[in-house]
Design brief:
The structure is a homodimer of 312-residue chains. Chain A is an alpha/beta fold and 312 residues long. The first copy, chain A, has twelve helices and eleven strands. In chain A, the strands form two sheets. Chain A has a six-stranded mixed beta sheet. A five-stranded parallel beta sheet of chain A has the order 2-1-3-4-5, sandwiched between helices. In chain A, helix 4 links the parallel strand 3 and strand 4. In chain A, helix 4 runs parallel beside helix 5 and helix 7 crosses helix 8. The radius of gyration of chain A is 20 Å and the shape is globular. The N and C termini of chain A lie close together (8 Å). At the A-B interface, helix 6, strand 11 and helix 12 of A face helix 6, strand 11 and helix 12 of B. Strand 11 of chain A pairs antiparallel with strand 11 of chain B.
């Protein structure tokens, strides 16, 4: 299977390295994955040329996320589908804005769309929701979906730091972005929750439908109060039907030691589903960072390749 | 897709009911699953007739597990593959004894083998290990894999019951089998651990390779001692490489409140993987009982059907 990579930032470069490292293990499983095109985000002329002359079988999309327009990822995905290519994407933008349209287009073109990387990197939230819960009705989705916020809350609690001091530490360690507003104001959590909701509950919601409160309103005093009560703050996203109406909310909540979220510390994440026939399912862990994101892309590629199992 | 069900015990009957209940939801997803044959375990003549005259596309195997011979499931699976049928199985026997042979045979016949139901019913241990960790090397497998033992340990601890009293309660509630030896002596855990190990670590081990100690040696005094130390006993199965040698062990271990296993109570289960590129992954929950087992079979069927996506 020939892969074309668009986007050579951190995730794209990590993917190139990972594919090299895993080449022997993949071949041993009968999977022949070759990176035949590497295309810079700016250079869409190269992309058109690739499509026209010598198309690949799958597009690996590592373009930067634009949550307003979904571009440039959105256009790349549509062009790939038109040319009969599968797509796996680390870019959340197009999935956030146009999941159902793109999914339909993939089906009409007989190809697959892999989005496992868009809802928490290595945490297999989408994969588990789609494959491990196939056939069950998912009744609610809940989770700690942003590692940076979780790290900051722990720093404030354990090291008695102010919000700004804890944020600075998270930035120093590369856990929070230079512009941390998406993380700490709850929007990263909201984006992931929204994708999970639209995909797994078959909804068609927008970011404006999510009630979002981040962790910026919490101070040392709040965290000390919680600690004295034996509780810990966690930034939680939740989608659930209440009186047949879907409520989507992101907010900091407190949990005691009997609750599994209490123990999700550092930059770890967790997602929890309730279902009709397969009970409750809690998934936690998943590495963070560009290398884990690359591994998450590779996971989607392998699952698609095994499904189509083309051998050379 | 036409399904043939072999075995009409608890799981088989629950599957028939579930397939009826889910018919509309499945059709809405473009999945047309029809049960065209229901065959009693004793009646292999009916099975041969079904294969010869009017074969189905997939065999749903709900035969009783025989961990010594793997029969009758083993013969049913091989016959199905020869006739180009996919197989999903709730019967652990053939998978325990001959996974690699059957997997190879499925590949050679261009069909799929679904075994998600064999390692904890609704708990997606195999599914997560195969699909959510695709491309990663799994370094260790660990878990609380037997709900009955977990329930008995909690009853002994919380209700100060003796082992026999707690076992009687588990049997009264239908959590433990009438012959509970597989559960409490650790063999059910060992069987699930062995399947996970052979499948996910690509090993070829047998039950004799697992060091097994169940919970029958624990008494009220042991559990009280642990409680006073703030710890809880859990029956844990673990496969890990130590100095390049695979060690497989089932034994009761104690855990404190900081450890996630401490909070896995009642008949809940958990499985935990460590990997090279996707970090650590912990999955807990999953309903128990025949209905959950049926839902687990349906999950495998849907994943296979979506892969082959035959529309009418």
């Amino acid at each position: 299977m020939r892969l074309a990579l668009v986007g050579c930032g951190g995730v794209g470069r990590a993917f190139i390295k990972l594919l090299e490292d895993k080449q022997n293990a993949l071949k041993a499983r009968g999977l022949f994955l070759r990176l035949t095109h590497t295309i810079d985000v700016e250079n869409s002329a190269d992309y058109d040329k690739m499509l026209a002359r010598h198309k690949a079988d799958m597009l690996v999309l590592a373009t930067p996320t634009d949550k307003e327009s979904g571009e440039p990822g959105y256009s790349y995905i549509k062009a790939a589908f038109k040319h009969g290519m599968h797509v796996v994407t680390a870019d959340k933008g197009p999935i956030l804005l146009a999941y159902h349209e793109l999914k339909k287009m993939a089906e009409n073109n007989g190809v697959k769309l892999g989005i496992g990387c868009t809802t928490g990197g290595a945490l297999p939230a989408i994969n588990a929701g789609e494959m491990a819960l196939a056939g069950a009705d998912i009744l609610s989705i809940e989770g700690i979906l942003n590692g940076a916020s979780n790290f900051i809350l722990e720093e404030m609690r354990e090291q008695h730091k102010s919000f700004n001091e804890a944020l600075a530490e998270a930035q120093r360690l590369g856990i929070a972005e230079t512009d941390p507003s998406l993380d700490v104001e709850g929007w990263d959590t909201a984006i992931k929750l929204l994708i999970l909701t639209n995909v797994l509950l078959n909804e068609n919601k927008r970011l404006a439908d999510v009630e979002v409160r981040g962790i910026t309103g919490l101070n040392r005093y709040d965290l000390n109060q919680a600690t004295h009560a034996g509780l810990r703050y966690k930034l939680v996203g939740r989608s659930a039907y209440v009186n047949n109406r879907l409520l989507m909310k992101v907010e900091p909540l407190v949990f005691g030691p009997q609750h599994p979220y209490y123990h999700v510390e550092g930059k770890n994440k967790v997602v929890r589903y309730t279902t009709d026939t397969l009970g409750e399912l809690t998934i936690s862990g998943g590495a963070s960072g560009v290398f884990a994101a690359a591994a998450s892309l590779l996971r989607d590629i392998i699952n698609i390749a095994l499904c189509f199992s083309d051998k050379p």
